[in-house]
């Protein structure tokens, strides 16, 4: 049925009246309070407290004065009082911002400004050296997270220019390592400094470098006594004291997709070793433990359960630290991937039966070129291409285990588990100055560059896959493992407009 001219006029007048009411209501909302507070006197974040005369959603746009990059917070809920978190700020810097009341027609304030505090003294350091590679574009739009295990312990995130953009501190414990969880929080392993137990045996013929730096005893080396989950605002969501439970985690910590905690734990076995003064010896080793966020142990696996000690020719030499697992991750099928540096191998372990499915490396189950053998490796995981990736410390020379090769590299393998062949996909050999005999990590970034931790020399490096170093972070401490932090981690807090 066709509308008459009068009906059309009435309809249009009604729409205009409705639009005018919305426009008036939206523009009649007043901002009654704006307060800026720096939580914990941080130089890197500000809390913006905003009160309105009527309930309404809003957002905040903020940017470094003179910079084209703008951050916009998500549109908030409809309410009168709002608390907006401004994160990833730079210290000693002027920022401009405006408050935008969200409606059919946005209503925004004039441009306002604030000054962040100066950086704390511990943050001031020559993180980037001009005489070392420092192409900040190699980082892409991400950050690098690393941890300080001394006092006070801290977690920091650094950008491509060497500026700390986020940090969290603990007054009582050092931070051994930290990792991002599937729910975009940070899981940290904490421990007292200088409480590690390790010993240097007398040097013998044909012993590798690794045998000089192995942990021993219950706490071992890089042993953690507490774990905590921290959100991106720096709030501790929960904290569990492992020491009270008689548990020691070390070397690695992960949260699985179903939000369980997975780590390597210290385990022992009583055994009568031949030619020792005691009838029963305590052998120290490792296993995998699964825990919930309340600290309840859900499952655990011990290497001692699948290890034939009677056939082990190394057991006396490594009785205090037989396996030295230094990383644990899940394969795509949910089974464990363990770095076993004493054996210079990666093991895949059935997470249900506990049986070792296969071993990769020298003397393992895969056919592979001897040039791709790895030595005292770290940081095993499945990269975004579906390949098994690791950091090869190069601690032993392939031809003579009494000598040190002194070349570290990143390796990635495509594994054919039917033909049992391992084909190298990435063989990224680093310059000799980037060698590290212990610790370290390798991660394939979204831009196909590789982020590597050169722990012993206090460096974090980004290289291309030909081994050319493009960017180097100069740390004033030994970083155990640096982790890449993508910009998408902050999607709940802001979006970035270039």
Automatic annotation (TrEMBL):
Pfam families: Arylsulfotrans. SUPFAM superfamilies: YVTN repeat-like/Quinoprotein amine dehydrogenase. This is Aryl-sulfate sulfotransferase.
